[in-house]
User: Fold this.
Amino acid sequence: MSPEILYALRDPAGVPTQPWLFLILGALTLALHLAAVQVMLGTGALTLRGAYSQSSHWRRLAAHMLTTSKIAVSVAIVIGVAPLLFVQVVYDPFWYTSNVLSGWWVIGFILILIVGYIALYAFYWKNHHLASEGGRSGHWMVLSLALLLLVGYIVHALTNQMLFPEQWMAWYAPDGNIEPTGRQLHYSHPLRFAFFIALSLPVTGAWLLGYRRYQQARPDADADYIAWLKPLAMRLLTLGGVVSVILGVLWMLTLPEKMAWFALSPWSVLALAALLVTVAFPLLLGARIDRGYWGYATFGVGAVALIVVCAVREVLRYVTLVGSHGYDALDYTVHMDWYSLLLFLLTFAVLGGVTLVYMLTVAWQAGQTTGRYSPSPALSWMGNLSIGLLGLWILAYFAIGFYVWAS
Ligand code: HEM
Assistant:
């Protein structure tokens, strides 16, 4: 496919701000999305492992991880929208073609996700007394995990099909016969997919270290349970980290020819280093892991490592499309739109920031209190502020709409 055709597929309206900003935000939000996906899958798997155990510690963990997994699905979905917006803005010729070639799966993605999410709730509804009575109807949880993985596989295929414009015609019209149903996923790289999914193991290990520290800080802390959690978290982090790194190396060794330059580049070495630092971090911390906020730090370091991995993944895509197909995402025509840029940044930083800080503080403090919890007046004020800001946002949204419509 010639670069001229690829450029002709671009949106003639251009983009509302500098394309590099979209690339940076795309990598950043993809890292957040993947962190939520990996916590969702890891805690879901721990739920299944613990629900049927004879051990009261395992069942207690399963009950807590079920709540985590349930929330993580919604976080993964909500945050998944952000990289979706960024990728379709700067890579629209590639993203939309890939979607059209597998249209059946793009629509199916939503239905599969809905059923997967409902299945998780079905398991939850059946298991209100998981810690004391053990698990029931595990098939719902198995179904949920399988469907959520399928959803991830569909995005993986879409995101990879876009990197092969030279194949698009053959996929669209094999042997010259048009195949209009969109029922096929045409390209996947199982080792790449396995790498991103396997990262659930170390990410969940880091999550468990934070969960353990959180339990430790409660007034009614159960020392036995907390001691039991540590080796489990460390096993997931270290063994899971090693498994992920091996899969990452195998992915690099099997890169398609046009991407082979990437395997031994400083970029992949950087991603490898970031992952290894995360795995080694609790060892560096030593006894400090039980003090202050250090118990949470491994997850923070892991989040930074995920940002590095996603940034490096973006380098692979950007250079492949420039080098092999003559398409430079950074030369997109810019039609600066200060209003939408400011609205986006304010929504992200102010509305999102205030609301998140409020919700996280309430959840945090409630979990650290025995008996009835009442937020302080300052915190309640913050809650009201986030509702007020949301009201203001809705007002601004309709006001600008009416203004544009009327002028
Ligand atoms: C809940 C199950 C999900 C799983 C297991 C999952 C997993 C993944 C994985 C493994 C990748 C990386 C693929 C690769 O690079 O090969 C990915 C990328 C992506 N995911 Fe998800 N995902 C899920 C849901 C969603 C949802 C609901 C959305 C959108 C609302 C979404 C949006 C995206 C986007 C846009 C990318 C690629 C961004 C890019 O190429 O720049 N995902 N996801």
Remarks:
- The chain has a mean pLDDT of 96.
- The chain has two domains: 3-336, 338-407.
- DSSP finds 15 helices and no strands in the chain.
